[in-house]
């Protein structure tokens, strides 16, 4: 679990995760969805891996060769203590060292909004991984919009659980914003799934207005020619 | 006021010190180009080697350490430097692992070093001892492991200079190292650290009793210089916060300053004590040689200046550990190693542990350090197929 401390502006895994001992049923809904998108034996880098719930699940159930990056000492210790290969670090600083195309899948779950340079991070994800799976809270979700409209105060939800003055989430976006960024970067959206408030997945067109209004979270599978050695 | 008035003579190593000695006959080709040998390696072991010979952990000691990692020091009687880490049920569990801790080449606790007698001349080596490197220390250790018929080390670990040896092991013998745990280390010695070492060496060499290094033949010992070297170095092992927490500006056994140069402050008294006890167990020339070995350490330099190249294709699993308040081997140095390992797509874990104990944290009771290392080793043991103790 990440620590909502003052230095957490750089935080990865900006929302809490389940404990490391887990079955599929215990795994957070969006993580389970991500796990289902990953092939057995894949090389996986989980950025903002929290206490290693996803990595642990993938190691046990899909025999993946998993690595993690996590900001909080408690998270890293929990991971390493469970035999997972995790480094203390953050997406803004530590991605540049990884070789191009060195992972089959790079996962960035509920973390993009907590990075300093999300644009650069997305570029790095699709460079390091042949595929990148990114999940984030949709700030265009109707409850967010309505909350701000009606109460006039910064929305707080279970996805974005911190009040404005101590949130690690400094770069919030809507699904439409994210798709626009991918287009701008020439990053392919291979697949997208939207989740409602109960974690129920729907396949709404991410470019349509409905997804942007009804989805509390989006999970995107991305790819780019950047992950090929010598690629763009 | 001097901290030591009469220079005591430090006796050469007693043959009845506990532990093992291996006489290596085949000369070792050193980095300086000399074929050195025969030479002796003094070492300690803890626990038992399993039938498959797969549970061995090599423990590498730091600059002022020795092979007595987990039993009382034969000179000082103090507990081993990693006594908190090693033992039955400990992090380095002697019921599960077989621990080997050798005294480094150039050391002064039984392994051949400048205080030992050169059989060709009948005199102590002194400055005719060849300048050795971290790589030379590791080459010598490899001879020991070959002698013990241990092909694959389950783990190599150590702090500070011990971490340098760990990284050298991983670089030189990747196929013989299943897991590598360098603690509070670096892939090269920094300019600042070389500078501190030079202060220590100059303190020793400025002592009239050093006699150009020939003090043993002359029945003298540069204990004042060595004590000052130790005092200066000891400051670098702590942190400002730890010094403040332990001593503040507290006075030593007095209610007011004495307007003189006696040890008015507790921190002075503490440092003097550190200096004066160190000289009882350490040889001044050894200090020169071992600090030099650390200064020369630059792992990337052996591989065209590229640290990732050092670890290219390594099968070892790494766990890098640093401490927040360590300004001698700061986290940035460890992170550089981590980035190089990532660039080499190695299997690496990295933890920076929050503590105000400075560089010395690796020797102290740090619960997060213990928990991390225990967890990492358990994970590795599972991959290595080592069974848990009953």
Which key features would you list for this structure?
heterodimer; A: 232 residues; alpha/beta; Rossmann fold; 8-stranded mixed β-sheet; 21% strand; disordered N terminus; B: 390 residues; Rna Polymerase Sigma Factor, Chain: A; 2 domains; globular
Report on the architecture of this protein.
The complex is a heterodimer of chains A (232) and B (390). Chain A is α/β, with parallel strands linked by helices and 232 residues long. Chain A has one domain (6-227): Rossmann fold, CATH 3.40.50.150. Chain A is 30% helix and 21% strand. Chain A is built from eight helices and eight strands. Chain A has helices at residues 29-36, 53-62, 73-81, 91-94, 118-128, 142-151, 175-185, 209-214, and strands spanning 43-47, 65-70, 85-88, 103-109, 129-137, 188-195, 201-202, 217-223. An eight-stranded mixed beta sheet of chain A has the order 3-2-1-4-5-8-6-7, sandwiched between helices. The radius of gyration of chain A is 16 Å and the shape is globular. Chain B has 390 residues and is an alpha/beta fold. Chain B folds into two domains: 20-191 and 299-384, 3-Layer(aba) Sandwich (Rossmann fold); 193-293, Orthogonal Bundle (Rna Polymerase Sigma Factor, Chain: A). In chain B, the strands form four sheets. Chain B has an eight-stranded mixed beta sheet, sandwiched between helices. Chain B is globular, with a radius of gyration of 21 Å. The termini of chain B are far apart. The model of chain B is unreliable at 5-9 (pLDDT under 50). The A-B interface holds A 67, 73, 76-77, 79-89, 94, 96-99, 102 and B 317, 319-320, 335, 338-340, 342-343, 345, 347-354, 368, 371-372, 374-376, 378-380, 382-383.
